[in-house]
Design a protein that fits this description.
2 domains; Rossmann fold; 11 helices; 31% helix; 4-stranded mixed sheet; binds 5'-O-[hydroxy(phenylacetyl)phosphoryl]adenosine; alpha/beta
Length: 435
């Protein structure tokens, strides 16, 4: 297959040249952050490192890490490196109170982010002749905005559908002959099922490629979607803290995602010791924004477990490749594309006068995540009146929806009904087998 690149010079840059480019950017970036972000300057001072110690990308390991806890501490402006009047946008994670991450962008940051998404779109063999249906959520979530911007850059006719409203998605897909679909893999699978139910066979579906990410998905799921829609399905990775989707993207080889490493330098570390691990080792993925202006995180610990490889790729790109994330070092779940921490459920329960005796059960039925929370009634709240139980379940589910942004089904169970564990409580039963 003839290879298409959006920014060929960068995407196929020889290793040594890339290292030089990264080094130049890093030296400038560390100075920018040191001078403009007192929070990070303090971390560097505590570690006894100054911008003068950073002469090339080989010195990166001298810098301190940043974690989600730092983002929380510094919320909302503590890691901002540009005056607010130079910022043009915020985006935010799907998480909520306490865990919310707010990322700021200058126009330059938006531009480089959209370039990354454009690289991902072009890598699927698409061009300005294509019609790109963006069915990721628009709004604070980065999925819609990122792919929308990338699609504009490529010059595709962009359908800014946002997520949900399956009937309308199908109507526009068919009437406007959408050729690229961007959404979460679970929504792609759901759309595929709905299309089938309406009698559309793959040969009647105009799509040729899908760009799916924001949550873990398996090779089996990929094959299922590819077959059902008659397309090639490409993975895309990213996180709000670094920009959003497009930090890494898949090419026609479909053996991992090329990291846009001229903007985001990737390291794999031992999550326990922080030691940088050699290529091919499994560990925690860490990113450094090399040229973002407003929210330039250095050595940000993603908590995603991953492997990096520099094996030659048949697509001609020299950008380092990351494997599909293989899990997380924390307890974050991704349910219907939304990041959920068990501690958020706990907070709701305590706020609502329950004890934190609960169990989350997640499954995937007909390609949609189910999300149930079993909660013990306290002796004080105990009742056997069905009407009261239903009202209490509804009210708890509403409180959880407010906290999480997605709706669980809450089941109240009798006090002491949830098995007590002798060791760590088993809070989550995830039956989805995503890895
Ligand atoms: O999910 C950004 C995104 C939007 C990526 C659209 C791809 C497509 P957050 O909500 O901040 O940002 O969640 C980031 O999602 O640390 C991973 O754990 C997970 N994740 C993202 N992409 C993938 C993927 C967006 N392709 C967190 N495979 C990350 C597995 C993924 N996990």
């Amino acid at each position: 297959m003839a290879q298409n690149y959006y920014q060929k010079e960068i995407e196929t840059m020889p290793r040594e040249e890339m290292k030089k480019l990264q080094s130049e950017k890093l030296v400038k970036q560390v100075k920018h952050v040191y001078e403009n972000v007192p929070y990070y300057k303090k971390l560097m001072d505590e570690k006894g490192v100054t911008p003068d110690d950073i002469k090339s990308i080989d010195d990166l390991h001298k810098l301190p890490f940043l974690s989600k806890a730092d983002l929380r501490d510094a919320y909302p402006y503590g890691l901002l490196a540009k005056p607010l009047d130079e910022c043009v946008r915020i985006q935010s994670t799907s998480g909520t109170t306490g865990r919310r991450v707010v990322a700021f962008y200058t126009q330059h940051d938006i531009d480089l982010w959209e370039d990354c998404c454009a690289r991902a779109i072009i890598a699927t063999g698409s061009s300005n002749k294509d019609v790109c249906q963006v069915a990721y959520g628009y709004g604070l979530f980065t999925g819609g905005a990122g792919l929308n911007g990338g699609s504009h850059k490529v010059g595709c006719l962009t359908l800014p559908m946002s997520s949900g409203n399956t009937e309308r998605q199908i109507q526009f897909m068919m009437d406007l002959n959408a050729t690229i679909l961007c959404c979460t893999p679970s929504y792609a699978a759901y759309l595929a099922e709905s299309l089938k139910e309406q009698g559309y066979t793959p040969d009647k579906i105009p799509l040729k490629a899908g760009i799916f990410g924001a949550e873990p998905w398996t090779e089996e799921m990929r094959h299922g979607i590819e077959e059902a829609l008659g397309i090639k399905a490409y993975d895309i990775y990213g996180l709000t803290e670094t920009t959003g989707p497009g930090v890494a993207f898949e090419c026609s080889e479909q053996t991992g995602m090329h990291v846009n490493e001229d903007h985001f330098y990737a390291e794999i570390i031992d999550p326990d010791t922080g030691e940088v691990l050699p290529e091919g080792s499994k560990g925690e993925l860490v990113f450094t924004s090399l040229d973002k202006e407003a929210f330039p995180l250095l050595r940000y610990r993603t908590r995603d477990i991953c492997v990096l490889t520099r094996k030659e790729c048949s697509c001609g790109r020299t950008l380092v490749k990351m494997a599909k994330p293989m899990g997380r070092t924390d307890d974050m779940l991704i349910i219907r594309g939304v990041n959920v921490f068990p501690s958020q459920i706990e907070t709701v329960l305590l706020n609502e006068g329950y004890q934190p005796n609960y169990q989350i059960v997640v499954d995937r039925v007909k390609n949609t995540d189910t999300f149930e929370v079993n909660v013990e009634m306290t002796p004080e709240k105990f009742t056997d009146k069905i009407g009261e139980i239903i009202a209490m379940e509804k009210s708890l589910a509403n409180a959880m929806k407010t906290m999480l942004g997605i709706n669980p089904t809450v089941h109240l169970v009798a006090p002491k009904a949830i098995a007590r564990s002798e060791g760590k409580a088993v809070r989550v039963i995830d039956k989805r087998k995503l890895i």
